[in-house]
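User: Hey, quick favor. My workstation is busy. Could you predict this chain's structure for me?
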Amino acid sequence: MTLVRHHTSERMSRIVVHNNTVYLCGQVAEDRSQGMAEQTRTMLAKVDALLAEVGCDRRHLLSATIYVKDMSLFAEMNQVWDAWVPAGHAPARACVEAAMASPELLVEISVIAAIPES
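Assistant: No problem, here it is.
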């Protein structure tokens, strides 16, 4: 069994790799003053960067859980999501309305992905 943690603090690890499966902690936008579309874009860019650190990419997503502050923003988030997910590579997904850790946050995502075989 292999288990590797990246960017670990006393509270959490940003990336955990276990037997070629990647688990990312919740990702949010850097600039919380932006609207839903821009927060979603920058959040997904962070997912791309973290997956790349461990030799993975969005084509290997297994599962995504998306938390939105208000379901009235669901369509706006989905428009960005749909453009980001490669055709034919949509993961299993859940999207729920949730109270966010900070009032400015509109969206957060947690993903699981498979590291491609070399």
